[in-house]
Specification:
7-stranded mixed beta sheet, Dehydroquinate synthase-like, alpha domain, binds glycine, 11 strands, 368 residues, 18% strand, single chain, binds nicotinamide-adenine-dinucleotide, 45% helix, two-stranded antiparallel sheet
Length: 368
């Protein structure tokens, strides 16, 4: 069986919590060879859903067994509605049954839901066991697998129960994206463009000029955009691991997005789609204040449209309802809503001085 080609290694330097992000093409089954830091014959739980087990998990468990590890499938349902303490409890039960120990390893194989859930369980089982991220969605490969935010949802809010708990390794095989449903894939492009806006004119331009190739999922281009995105995230996390400063810029478009998702019951939009609309809102708000050019706003909108992403707030959602949803966001501090606004391609700033009427005008500006 081919072990694929590793195309890039990006270090995340966090002292004794440092780890590499290893990016490659068709490298999934090369993972056992990279586990030289795990004791021979250790127990390894591969946490994944039934559908991902069929696609990738079974072959990975077999490869781990062949390499001498006591690998097994820790089964969990997929979907945001299952990113809960109940799902975590069912994983703890399976870990106990399989006699997982302090030095056993947890592998999260899947999208952001499984990565966040398995990471949360790894952070808390026996006060913390080592874990790896093997992300299989574009959002997970460029964002959620890196940086150690692990969480489950509470009925009153997303990601309300969680921790910062870094993985030991992030192992990315971009070829796993080939089986991703089209809508999930396109949703991830919004998160990639977000990196372009906050930190990389080069990535912004790549999406602007090569969207057709990106949509075709050319593996070389995928490896390139995932590597550029991870490098930006790694740099930001190194500077501000627990989000007391610059890490907040990763939330560009997200204040609006979380409100849109909440106001539409988390059913209508994929997260990345809501982020796309949120980025248009943030640019409109910055434009109204003269903080960014019309040209920027138009270029950003054109890229999102080329990716087939939505760029308008649904008109039936009352702007005041969105404003109220924003006030409930866990990132609100002392009652002030914090926004990340663009200044130019590759540069954003954090501001909390926008008035309610400016926010509402920005939402209305996206209507067609
Ligand atoms: P997801 O995990 O729900 O996955 C989307 C769907 O794609 C699922 O049905 C899954 O089974 C399927 N899937 C996954 N990989 C596949 C593949 N290779 N082939 C075919 N199907 C595949 O969605 P997501 O967008 O990856 O993650 C969203 C979650 O990530 C949210 O819970 C969000 O809060 C979290 N998140 C966390 C962070 C962080 O920093 N921790 C950052 C961003 C998002
Ligand atoms: N996804 C935002 C962060 O990791 O901070």
């Amino acid at each position: 069986m081919s072990k694929g080609t590793i195309t890039c290694r990006i270090p995340v330097r966090l002292g004794d919590r440092s780890y590499p992000i290893v990016i490659g093409q068709r490298t999934l089954l090369g993972l056992p060879e990279a586990l030289d830091f795990v004791a021979p014959s250790s127990r390894i739980a591969v946490v994944t859903s039934p559908s991902l087990y069929r696609l990738y998990g079974e072959a990975l468990v077999e490869a781990l067994k062949e390499a001498g590890f006591q690998a097994w499938w820790a089964q969990t349902p997929d979907g945001e509605e299952h990113k809960t303490l109940e799902s975590a409890a069912r994983l703890y039960d399976q870990f106990v049954e399989h006699r997982m120990e302090r030095r056993s390893l947890v592998i999260a194989l899947g999208g952001g839901v499984i990565g966040d859930l398995a990471g949360f369980v790894a952070a808390t089982y026996m006060r913390g066991v080592p874990f790896l991220q093997v992300p299989t969605t574009l959002i997970a490969q460029v964002d959620s697998s890196v940086g150690g935010k692990v969480a489950v949802d509470h009925p009153r809010g997303k990601n309300l129960i969680g921790a910062f708990y870094q993985p030991r390794l992030v192992w990315i095989d971009v070829a796993t994206l080939l089986s991703l449903p089209e809508r999930e894939y396109r949703a991830g492009i919004a998160e990639v463009l977000r990196y372009g806006v906050i930190a990389s004119p080069e990535l912004f331009q790549l999406l602007e000029e090569r969207m057709e190739v990106v949509l075709r999922r050319d593996l070389n281009v995928l490896a390139q955009i995932v590597a550029k995105s991870c490098a930006i995230k790694a740099r930001i996390v190194e500077e501000d691991e627990t989000e007391s400063g610059v890490r907040a810029t990763l939330n560009y478009g997200h204040t609006f997005a979380h409100a849109i998702e909440a106001a539409t019951g988390y059913q209508r939009f994929r997260h990345g789609e809501a982020v796309a609309i949120g980025m248009v809102c943030a640019a409109a708000m910055a434009l109204q204040r003269g903080l960014v050019s019309q040209e920027f706003a138009e270029r950003q909108r054109r890229i999102l449209e080329a990716a087939g992403l939505p760029t308008a707030c649904p008109e039936e959602v009352e702007p005041h309802a969105l404003l109220e949803a924003m006030r409930l966001d866990k990132k609100v501090s002392a009652g002030k809503i914090r926004f990340i606004v663009p200044r130019e391609v590759g540069r954003v700033e954090i501001r909390d001085d926008f008035t309610d009427s400016e926010v509402i005008a920005a939402i209305r500006a996206t209507y067609r």
